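Researcher: First entry.
Model:
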Amino acid sequence: MRLIAWDTSSRAGALAALEWDEGSREGWQGVKLVSEWTLNVDLTHSERLLWGIHQLLESARWKIQDVDVFGVGVGPGSFTGVRIGVTTARTLAHTLGKPLVRFSSLAALARPAALWLAEQPIVGKKKVVLVAATDACKGELFALYGNARSIMDCIAWAEGDAGGYWKRGVEERVIAPDDLLKVLKRKLSEGGDSGYWLALGEGRQRYPEFWKKLPQDRELRVPLPFANQVQGRMAGLLAWEAYQAGLASDALRVHPRYLRASDAEIKLKAGLLPPGPTRGN
């Protein structure tokens, strides 16, 4: 089986190509990372995504027709970036008649830290609250937070008629920093005096003063390079997990997960946009 997946929820685009034997019982250890690309350059996703997919396929020596499954990060994140990524995935999968799987962009961002924490003895003894946060503008954050061991198993929310796989107690929402601070302090207090926290993502970098309000002696720092951006291999891994969990669907059933209305939608509902063309004009 061959799968390509990408995430365009932030400035850095991440893509990966995976291959595995469908009859294998080795789990993710039987999956081969064939090719991986990161595009963190001053170009819009509309300018670079199709080029990136072409380069991914070229380096894997595949044709687009060789792909069995497509995967895409559905956000939350940049409205434009998520829309471009999801629209491209829907178009390719639908045109080729292939299944499409979706995954949370924030879960993909959090997964390397969750994998690292799973290997640390402290996690088995202490509560660790893991936070993946990106800048939502307007003084808000897109944030995923919860127990590190629970985040390890999160793939995508179930929405509408689309299935999902998500652990109880893990939240994904748009939230003001002060409100997130209250939530995190409450979660840390549930672990008594022994709870720890770890935060990563653009939101960790954008609001340094905010994070200083949490107990500094209980912060963990993940010793992994490029931990503040989604990695192609993690996008591929979550897409593979989604496929194994039976979350593949018809491409046209996959939609972005924005978490809030766009500026255009808000203005339209408020009657602040000019009327569109009428019939005959």
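Researcher: Second entry.
Model:
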Amino acid sequence: MNTSTQKKRLPLSIVSTIGVFVCLFAAYPAQAAFPTIEDIKSGNVTLDDIISDIPTEIEIKTQMAHTNLFIETEPKNYQANQNITVSLKSYLADIDRAYISWYVDEKNVTSGIGKTKINIKTKDAGTRTTIRVVVDPIEKDIDSIEKTIILYPTDFDVLWEADSYTPPFYKGKALYTAHSKIKLVAMPNFPNNLADNLFYEWEKNINRLRSESGYGRSVVNLDKIAENYGNMRIDVAVSTLDKSIASYRIFNIPSAQQAIIFYEDDPIEGVMYNRAVGKTFDTAKKEFTIVAEPYYFSQTDKKNGSLDFSWQVNNADKPGYEQKIAFTQEKSGIGNAYVKLAMRNLGNIYQSAREYLTINFNNSDAN
């Protein structure tokens, strides 16, 4: 072999010295400034100084046990003034045999071997509870471990608005229907410095709404909900990014079917929304108009003219009429008319309704 091209090897003593420094660097505390070669040469830092700063085996194991010690609450997302369970879990230390002491707001509430759980009641919204737990492991090579968690129950409201139609002056709430749209808005009562930095987790009927959840996602728009008729369950959790403060809500949104309600349209007073016509309408008027209000149909589709009105009077089609139909009694006397209205949403095949009305005429002065 040509010695001129052969790679030179470092002396074994130099390799050993480098290995020592590599090991020392790996074990040296991260918060300390690692000494330079100049520091060592000048005598400002000795090898004993470096070695004295290296954690002992007990310190390393204790730190690992601390890192793998967790405090959890059940339920995970608690509310104010709620009874909860606080549990201690570890994947390294044998805490079932350890002596555990629990402190609530620095008051010792229980101590003993294997005391891995306590039951407490959270305080009012916005009031903190500090829980500190001290663990004395059975392992001799692990020092005491301490963990702290702060419970900070908060409160928030959730408003919802369905894209369904109700007539003017209707005192009730517009309900959602199958395959309709609904808007949800979470309004958290968190400290002012946290209100704009919150994480929202939404669920509908116990199914996670992944695309609607996330940072700052306080508003959710659900489009064409596919469930059949029935209440819709909504779960929402609001928390800070580090989950140190969290709140949780479960509520049900009632549903309804589309319906047609008839009202009289008076030429002087307007539509008589204070009194529905019902199934039977008795009148002595020569002329009158009936208005059909499409309750809980899509409000957007109604504005867009997507609702189709199919009227029949005495089994005869009456084309050309939409939401209103006019009647004229041409002859005097007593009579009746049977009215049928079938309504459907051309923009949503799942929305339809039909209703019947019997009109009883009693006018001896017609003509």
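Model: Note on the second entry: The CA atoms of residues 106 and 132 lie 7 Å apart.
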